[in-house]
Specification:
binds zinc ion, five-stranded parallel sheet, alpha/beta, globular, 12 helices, single chain, Urease, subunit C, domain 1, about 35% helix, eight-stranded mixed sheet, 2 domains, TIM Barrel
Length: about 425
Amino acid sequence: MKNILLLLILFTPTQLFSQNTYYLQPDRVFDGTQMQEGWAVLVTGNKISAAGPSAQLKPPKEATVIKLTGCTLLPGLIEGHSHLFLYPYNLTDWDTQVLKETDAYRTARATVHAKNTLMAGFTTVRDLGTEGAGYADVALKRAINEGIIPGPRMIVAGRAIVSTGSYGPKGYDDDSKIMLGAEPTDGNDLIRVVRDQIGKGADFIKVYADYRWGTKGEDRPSFTLDELKLVNEVTRSSGRYLVCHAKSKEAIKRAILAGAETIEHGDYLDEEVAQLMKQHNVTYYATLGAVDAIQQYRGWKKGKDPEPALVQQKKRSFKIALDAGVTIGMGGDVGVYHHGQNVYEMELMAEYGMKPLDILKAATSVNAKALHMENEIGSIKPGLLADLVAVKGDPTNNISDLRKTEFVMKDGVRFR
Ligand SMILES: [Zn+2]
């Protein structure tokens, strides 16, 4: 034992010196809050060790100098609402993906989705449910963390929770058991299911607070306020948090009052709900990309045809949230459209009136805080993990410059 300790003491300093050191020199740095012209960033091992004006911050002699001329360096981007186990519904509809594709097949696809996401500069994803692939997200996350396959950091929901009778796939013969896209449960049994999902690896709990099961197929609440409160209490006591899918006004209100930290979709939020979100420090994920993409899959010729009602509604609610000063995160429900095209959501946020600098914040520091990870990711400052991306151009002038990925680093490892 004594010998082992001695060995450790002898070898630790050598390991420190053999850590990779990178000196990154872009034209400008977005630090998670503002744009800094002429900054350089120093990476030591898997951490950012220094950041500041390049005139003051000189490269140490052991550093690999990477000049990123014409580029903006940003914190690794964070996708706030992904489904790595889904792919565009115009290729294969959702029912077929959930019912006819095995978990093994879906996982094989998900490894490619993960790689494409990372290469597009998204070094972290909050994944909102496997939609019928059980806890394959927990396994995918493990393979990425162990360095077996390239992919983003994953914060995962697992199966997610729905109320009995509300969720799909729907309309099949009752003679055979149809597997749903999430785990159905109600009442006091929610306690057991939340604990079970946590035990199987859920990093947070996702509940569908409403679904389109109204008499005319409209979005109606699926859980009572008390049920949501129960879920929140059990979730919180484990140190985790609740997030809710909620489109209708009533479901959004119940979710907020129950203690949900983020609202997903929020299609029918109004001024009153926006104020409630602010009071309760709730972060809003509008998922503009999903609505825009689905309408196009249904035949809408964007830019030619008049805007479908659902797109108009999305624009209205997004503007209400924006004007009210609600905290808006970046999450597009990617999976409905191609993984690796995550910037699509950010382009729509710009199109719907959000300032590019605020969109950059949403995808970095705001998302990091919503994930309770602001001390690890989402900003460029000493001590944080070296998750960094460089793009050609300046995304505060043109948000689509985020598509021009030149450099990707996650955890101090260079992938591009
Ligand atoms: Zn989703």
